[in-house]
Amino acid sequence: MLGAYLPILVLVVIAVLFGLGSVVFSSLIGQKKPSKVKLAPYECGCEPVGSARERFSIKFYLIAMLFILFDIEAVFMYPWAVLFKRLGMFGLAEMGLFIVILFVGYIYVWKKGALEWE
């Protein structure tokens, strides 16, 4: 039984060795000439303004989570579209229910004001 997992174990060992080897090898042969320009934070070629420790509004994280939520929900429609003909009327009803639940969630979030950026 354990022999079936041997290829997975070999793959994990190779991946870990490759990762560690890359880090060690680059630290051994890499150039170490730090300068003020190299140690400065890079922001698309612009001079950095303010602190990197600036606090973000909770609205930023809320909008980001809602975007991910609705984006992932849209991804579930791709497998349904591929199997649309084989699923028949049952698949259509299930996707209709899915879209209704998604729409109700969207209206709830909208009414709560979670999408307002102020």
TrEMBL record:
The transmembrane residues are 6-29, 60-81, 87-109
Protein's job: NDH-1 shuttles electrons from NADH, via FMN and iron-sulfur (Fe-S) centers, to quinones in the respiratory chain. The immediate electron acceptor for the enzyme in this species is believed to be ubiquinone. Couples the redox reaction to proton translocation (for every two electrons transferred, four hydrogen ions are translocated across the cytoplasmic membrane), and thus conserves the redox energy in a proton gradient.
Q: Which residues form a coiled coil?
A: none
Which InterPro entries does the annotation name? NAD(P)H_OxRDtase_bac/plastid (IPR023043), NADH_UbQ/plastoQ_OxRdtase_su3 (IPR000440), NDAH_ubi_oxred_su3_sf (IPR038430)
As its record notes, the protein acts as a catalyst of: a quinone + NADH + 5 H(+)(in) = a quinol + NAD(+) + 4 H(+)(out)
Alphabetically sorted, this entry's keywords are:
Cell membrane, Membrane, NAD, Quinone, Translocase, Transmembrane, Transmembrane helix, Transport, Ubiquinone
UniProt-annotated location(s) = Cell membrane; Membrane
The record's comment on protein family reads: Belongs to the complex I subunit 3 family.
The species this protein belongs to is Geomonas terrae
State whether keyword Transport applies: yes
Enzyme Commission (EC) number? 7.1.1.-
Q: What class of enzyme is it?
A: translocase
A GO molecular-function descriptor: quinone binding
Q: How does it assemble?
A: NDH-1 is composed of 14 different subunits. Subunits NuoA, H, J, K, L, M, N constitute the membrane sector of the complex.
- What name is this protein filed under? NADH-quinone oxidoreductase subunit A
Where the protein is mainly located, per its record? membrane
Membrane disposition: Multi-pass membrane protein
Q: Name one GO cellular component term.
A: NADH dehydrogenase complex
